[in-house]
Design a protein that fits this description.
three-stranded antiparallel sheet; elongated; mainly alpha; 5 strands; single chain; 8 helices
């Protein structure tokens, strides 16, 4: 509930505290932090959780955030950074730690049961695929198109990736053999 804080390897607890305000474990503490986020920040957090190993520029975050106005997106990203769910590295943002994936996904599953959760994840996977495709990461984009329920689009992207890879290999072979 925002009463207990963890920073620099230490928990800080106020002098007087109601036992009901204490989390009963790390999982509930993480889930409470995710649940305290606003709806747009939670949706953006879910997008980061769908591919926790990747980092994104602000322009890519705009596409992931469904083209929200820049000031609103900055507010959402600040909220995620203040909650320590995402971290900044140079000019890119990424999920701060894989430990956030489970609480982010469970909160979304609870808030959007059944088909609504699946539909939201598919929409976010489609946004991710578009960003990754623009970056030239066709293989990852293909995986997200599949998860978005777009097998034909995934196949197109993966075939293009295979063609480009084959062309690059042929050029490399020509250069190698020309020496």
């Amino acid at each position: 509930r925002g009463v207990v804080h963890y920073a620099a390897g230490e928990w800080t607890v106020p002098a007087a505290i109601d036992p009901e305000d204490l989390p009963n474990g790390i999982a509930s503490a993480l889930a409470a932090r995710v649940a305290a986020l606003g709806p747009h920040a939670r949706e953006l957090a879910l997008t980061f959780a769908l591919c926790p190993e990747l980092s994104f520029s602000f322009a890519e975050c705009q596409k992931l955030g469904d083209d929200r106005p820049p000031t609103a997106l900055l507010s959402d990203l600040d909220e995620l950074r203040n909650a320590e769910l995402v971290r900044r590295s140079d000019d890119r943002l990424r999920l701060a730690h894989p430990i956030w994936v489970a609480p982010i996904r469970s909160i979304h599953a609870r808030e959007h049961p059944g088909a609504a959760h699946t539909d939201l994840e598919r929409a976010l996977d489609a946004r991710l695929a578009g960003v990754l495709e623009t970056r030239g990461e066709e293989f990852r984009a293909g995986q997200h198109w599949l998860r978005a329920g777009e097998p034909a689009r995934a196949l197109d992207v993966l075939v293009e990736h295979a063609r480009r890879s084959q062309d690059e290999t042929a050029r490399d072979a020509e250069l190698f053999l020309s020496y």
